[in-house]
């Protein structure tokens, strides 16, 4: 509960604080987990990182998925065995798969005092059950625990189905695990990434990032551009350049998804001073590239337009973002779009 | 203008979790065409839209949009909200139409994103007639 106290008293949004930019000694984070956690609770800098985490960490990432449940028709005697054997202190009560209540060791003690050990769980359970949603953040759960003083909270999805159970211990363990993972990832990827061009000496250093794009896969459309954007941010590119690259590659990716028969590839070649992005596919090809470059010219179908795309501005938009652009296409062969953006 | 000021001007509501209402926006764009959003906006923009699919979030992410207002009382799916949360883009909702939501904000002095260079240079040339009613 120390965690919740720290958080409750800290008003400004901690998610906005970049811990990497402020950290002074990057080496300390590779030590043992326990030492780290102890150090974190003292040092204001790492508390910030911890705050950042509880705002990001989802309940579903830390909850126990295997839930031990009982039925309202079970006896309290049966419950006693369930608690004892599984070494737990409470369980959700399910009737026909629906969450109808929660029963705890406290209810069991009261039942024992009254000598009603053969009463049904349904008679003794708490029916007004507080739950948390699986997609809620850990901080929302922490607040709920603080408010209701419960030992555990059943976790439900947005359809109301029980998907897990959460204790405060789960949150603490989840946070520790995530701290370990995050520090490691940030350490390795971000720290080293931003120095890649200085650390590696050659006459010409380039980094090639290749993203496969599936045709008609609108659900994942944008992931390549999103990943490329993130990679460039990690490499320390200027925000204005990153934005132009993100917009251009997103438009190119959308074109591959919407207009190709077999999808294609986005290949980004990152150099210290510029990035070259090539989007290639194997067809169907553009009959008239000049016409395709006309603002507003589009062959997109109605459903694509309903999603807010296909306005015939994609290629123009790419051109507006790029310092150089070349479009080649042959019907039946494929299309190759190449752009260069200065970094 | 902060997001909390935006909320009071449009009498809106926050619809995604953990939103920092002190975030600043410096201009706004109202659009249902995602290509327009990618073309016209700059970082620091507030997007007003009637579309609620997850691609609005993707578009906003690429374009560096600060926050999104869904107009005329439309609410996005959980999928859209989850993606927005993952990308750190606050979602707000307004019960007013696009026109009125934009109008309320514009009246306070919040500017638009300026003209797309291509449109600014050639929009008159593209018209079939010069627009003079006597011809």
Structure described in brief:
By secondary structure, chain A is α+β, with helices and mostly antiparallel strands.
Q: How would you characterize the overall build of this protein?
A:
The complex is a heterodimer of chains A (343) and B (135). Chain A has 343 residues and is of the alpha+beta class. Chain A has a domain at 203-342: 2-Layer Sandwich (Heat Shock Protein 90). Helices cover 45% and strands 19% of the residues of chain A. Chain A has a five-stranded antiparallel beta sheet with strand order 6-7-8-10-9, with helices on one face. Residues 1-46 of chain A have low confidence and may be disordered. In chain B, helix 2 (34-40) runs parallel beside helix 3 and helix 3 (54-63) runs parallel beside helix 4 (78-87). Chain B has one domain (3-111): Udp-n-acetylmuramoylalanyl-d-glutamate--2,6- Diaminopimelate Ligase, Chain: A, domain 1 (3-Layer(aba) Sandwich). Helices cover 38% and strands 13% of the residues of chain B. Chain B is an alpha/beta fold. Chain B has helices at residues 3-10, 34-40, 54-63, 78-87, 98-107, 117-122; strands spanning 13-14, 27-30, 45-49, 67-70, 91-93. Chain B has a five-stranded mixed beta sheet with strand order 1-5-4-3-2, with helices on one face.
């Amino acid at each position: 509960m120390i965690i919740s106290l720290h958080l409750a008293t800290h008003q400004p949004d901690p998610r906005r604080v970049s811990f990497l930019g402020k950290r002074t000694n990057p080496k300390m984070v590779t030590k043992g987990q326990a030492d780290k956690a102890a150090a974190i609770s003292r040092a204001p800098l790492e508390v910030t990182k911890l705050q950042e985490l509880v705002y990001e960490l989802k309940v579903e990432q830390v909850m126990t998925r295997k839930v031990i449940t009982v039925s309202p028709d079970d006896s309290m005697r049966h419950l006693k065995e369930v608690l004892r054997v599984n070494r737990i202190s409470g369980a959700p009560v399910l009737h026909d798969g629906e969450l109808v209540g929660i029963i705890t060791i406290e209810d069991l003690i009261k039942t024992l005092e009254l000598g009603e050990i053969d009463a049904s769980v349904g008679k003794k359970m708490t029916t007004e059950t507080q739950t948390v949603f699986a997609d809620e953040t850990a901080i929302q759960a922490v607040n709920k625990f603080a408010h209701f003083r419960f030992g555990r909270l059943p976790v439900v999805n947005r359809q109301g189905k029980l998907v897990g159970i959460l204790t405060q211990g789960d949150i603490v363990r989840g946070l520790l695990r995530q701290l370990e993972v995050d520090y490691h990832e940030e350490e390795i990827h971000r720290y080293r990434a931003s120095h890649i061009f200085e650390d590696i000496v050659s006459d010409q250093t380039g980094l090639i990032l290749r993203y496969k794009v599936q045709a008609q896969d609108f659900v994942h459309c944008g992931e390549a551009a999103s990943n490329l954007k993130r990679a460039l941010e990690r490499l320390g590119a200027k925000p204005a350049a990153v934005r132009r690259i993100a917009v251009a590659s997103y438009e190119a990716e959308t074109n591959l998804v919407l207009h190709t028969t077999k999808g294609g590839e986005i290949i980004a070649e990152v150099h210290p001073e510029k990035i070259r992005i090539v989007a290639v596919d194997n067809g169907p090809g553009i009959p008239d590239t000049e016409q395709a470059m006309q603002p507003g010219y589009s062959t997109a179908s109605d459903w694509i337009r309903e999603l807010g795309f296909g306005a015939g501005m994609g290629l123009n938009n790419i051109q507006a973002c790029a310092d150089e652009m070349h479009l080649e296409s042959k019907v039946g062969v494929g299309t190759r779009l190449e752009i260069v953006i200065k970094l | 203008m902060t997001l909390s000021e935006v909320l009071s001007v449009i009498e809106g509501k926050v619809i995604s979790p953990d939103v920092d209402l002190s975030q600043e926006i410096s201009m706004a764009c109202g659009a249902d065409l995602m290509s327009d959003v990618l073309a016209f906006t700059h970082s620091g923009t507030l997007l007003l839209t009637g579309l609620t699919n997850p691609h609005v979030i993707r578009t906003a992410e690429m374009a560096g949009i600060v926050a999104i207002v869904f107009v005329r009382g439309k609410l996005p799916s959980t999928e859209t909200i989850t993606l927005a949360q993952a990308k750190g883009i606050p979602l707000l909702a307004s019960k007013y139409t696009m026109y009125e939501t934009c109008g309320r904000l514009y009246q306070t002095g919040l500017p638009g994103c300026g003209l797309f260079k291509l449109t600014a240079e050639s929009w008159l040339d593209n018209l079939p007639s010069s627009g003079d009613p006597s011809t």
